[in-house]
Amino acid sequence: MEKRVVFKSAWLPYALVAPQIAITVIFFFWPAIEAVYYAFLVQDPFGLSSHFVWFQNFTELFASPEYLDSFKTTAVFSVLVAALGMSIALLLAAMADRVIRGSLAYKTMLIWPYAVAPAIAGVLWAFMFSPSIGIVTYYLLKLGLNWNWVINGNQAMLLVVMAAAYKQVSYNFLFFLAGLQSIPRSMIEAAAIDGASPVRRFWTIIFPLISPTTFFLLVVNIVYAFFDTFGVIDATTQGGPAAATEILVYKVYYDGVKAADLGGSSAQSVILMFIVIALTVVQFRFVERKVQY
Amino acid sequence: MAEIVLDGVTKSFGKTEVIHPVQATIADGEFVVIVGPSGCGKSTLLRIIAGLETATAGEIRIAGKRVNEVEPKDRNIAMVFQNYALYPHMTVYGNMAYGLKIRKLSRADIEQRVQRAAKILELGPYLQRKPRELSGGQRQRVAMGRAIVREPAAFLFDEPLSNLDAKLRVQMRLEIQKLHRELRTTSVYVTHDQVEAMTLADRMFVINAGTIEQAGAPIEVYDDPATLFVAGFIGSPSMNFLPGRREADGVEVGGGMKVPLPEALRASAPQSLTVGVRPEHLELGGTEGLPFRLNVETIEALGADSLLHTNFHGTPLVARVDGHAAPAAGETLTFTVLPRHLYFFDTASGKRLRAGR
Ligand SMILES: Nc1ncnc2c1ncn2[C@@H]1O[C@H](COP(=O)(O)OP(=O)(O)O)[C@@H](O)[C@H]1O
Ligand SMILES: [Mg+2]
Prior knowledge:
The complex is a heterodimer of chains A (293) and B (357). With 293 residues, chain A is mainly alpha-helical. Chain A has helices at 12-39, 56-63, 65-98, 103-111, 118-128, 135-142, 153-181, 185-194, 198-209, 211-227, 230-235, 248-258, 262-287; strands at residues 41-43, 50-52. Chain B has helices at 42-50, 92-102, 107-120, 136-149, 166-183, 194-200, 218-223, 228-233, 263-266; strands spanning 4-13, 16-26, 31-35, 57-62, 65-66, 77-80, 154-158, 186-191, 203-208, 211-216, 240-247, 250-254, 257-260, 272-277, 283-284, 290-301, 305-312, 315-322, 332-337, 343-346. Chain B has a six-stranded mixed sheet, with helices on both faces. Chain B has a five-stranded antiparallel sheet with strand order 13-12-11-14-20. In chain B, strands 15-19-16-17-18 form a five-stranded antiparallel sheet, with no helix packed on it. In chain B, helix 2 (92-102) packs across helix 3.
C-alpha cells in the first residue's frame, strides 16, 4: 500500500527535515570532516601554527606501543562487556520467559537500568566498589579479598566491565525476551515430549533459534563497548591505573584534550570512524538479512 | 500399546473449570476422536493426557499406571501438534532422530527407525531438507514421522490437519487411517471437524463446554444422539430442529401440524419439546409418513445431492434430495418424514427422550 504523504507546497518538506539535517551536519559531519583534516596536521604545543604532514600521525600511532596496547585493552574490554552483558541478560530473559505471574513487574524493573546515564552508572559502581568507602569493598575485605582497583589494573578492568555491562543488560534482556517469546510454545513442548531436559532444550532448540538475535546483539554490544562507554570510564577509572582501562575512545579524548596532541587524537578518531563503518557494514550484511536456520 | 483411563479428571484455570469431571477409557489399540466446537476443552484434555497440563483433580492412567506426576517424556506418548512444531533448524532426518538420540538409541537403530518411518510416509527423498523447504502436507508427515519413530504406547493428535487445504486434508485423513491399521497404536485425535471424527474414529467422544456429552462409534452417535447438542453437531448439514409443544399424545410443531409422540416416550415427555429431523429424512414426493408442506427458498446444488433450504412456519428446514430431482426455487412442495425418523428432545435440559432410559 502506498503510504507516501504528498505535500502541496514545494518548500515545506525541506523545512520539516531541515532541523534534523542541520543537527546532523553541525554535530556529526562537520566534526568528522574536521577530524579528518586535523589528522593530517601537526600543531605546535600552543596551537599557534600547524603544518601538513600527510600520514605521519598514523604511522606514529601504529609505531606507538601505548596505542597498540589501547587496542588490546579495547578488545578485551568489549569482549568482556559483550559476553557478560549478554550472558546475564540471556539468563534473566530465560527465567522471565518462564514466569507467568508478575512478569510485568520483573520486566519493568529489569529495563530500568537502561534509563540510567552511563556516567551515573559508572559513579554508582565506583562508589559501591570504592577502595576506601565502598560497601562491596567492605564485604570483600571481610571475605579476605583485597580490593583496590585504584592500583590493581585487572580489578579496574573488572569494575569498568561490570559498570558498562550493567547498563547493557537491560537492552539485551529486552531483545532476548522478545526472541524467546517468538519461539512457538508447542516447539518446546514437542522437545519436552521427545525427552529433552530443560537444559538440553535450551542448547539444542532455543539457543539455535535465537541465534539471529544473539548475533545482532553481539554487534550492538561491541559497538556500545567501543564507543558509548566513555562516560563509564571517565566517571570511574579515567583510563587508569597505568592505562589498564584506557580504551580507544578514552584515549582519543585524553590525547586530544589532556595531552593536547590534536593531530594524533584526530588520527585516532579517524581510525575509530573506520571501525564504526566496518561494524555497520557487518551489521547490515549479516544482521539485516532474513533469519536463516 | 496401552489403555488410557481418565478417572474423574477435571481442569480449572484459575477459578474457571474448563473440564468438568471426565470419565473415559480408551482401549488398547483404539482410535478415539475427541470432537467438539472450538474452546470446548479438547486440547486441554489431550494436553492433560500428554502431561503438558496437570489435572486439577482425578487420575490419569496409562497402561494401568497412574501418571499424574509423571513427566511428559516418561509417559511413552508422542504428540502431533496443529502447527507441526517441527524444529526449523534441523533437517527432516534430524527432526525425526532428535527424540531417539536423547533416548540414547544406537546410531544404527536410529537410522533404521527413521528410514522405516520415511518409507511409510514417503519422505525418503526429503530427509536432508529443512522444514521450510517442504510443503504443508510434507511437514505434516514429518510431524507424524517424528511420532512414529518413537514407537510410543499412544499417539496424541491435536487438530493435525486443520492447517492443510481441503484436498490435502482428505488425503492425509486416509493416510492416518491406513497408518493406524498398520501400527494399531492407541490414538487420541482431537478435532473440531465432525467429518474427520466420523471417518477416523473407532469411537468418538463428543464434547461440549468441558463435558463429554456422548461417547460411541460414529454411526451409533449419528443414529442415536443423546442430546440436542450432539444431534446438531454431528452430521452435515445439521439436523433440523422444530420447537414443539406437548399436546395429548402428540407434539404441535407449528402451523397446527401435529406429529405423534411414540408411546414409550409419553410418560416422560415434558411440555416443551424440540423435534429433530435429519435433512436426508425429508423425502420429496414420498407417499408414506407425515406430510410437510414446505416452500423452497434457495437451492445448494452439490452435484449428486442438492440441499433445499426451506421454511416451515418461520423455522428454517434443510432437505437433502437427489441432485437430479431438485425442484426450482420458490415452489411449495410436500415432503414426507417417517415417524421413526423423528427425534424428540427435552428443550429445557437438551436431553433426548429415549425409551427405557
Ligand atoms: N493456559 C490457559 N489459561 C487459561 N485458560 C485457558 C488456557 N488454556 C485454555 N484455556 C481455556 O480453556 C478452554 C478450553 O480451551 P482448549 O482446550 O484450548 O479448547 P479447544 O482445544 O477445544 O478449542 C477455553 O475457554 C480456553 O480459553
Ligand atoms: Mg485446540
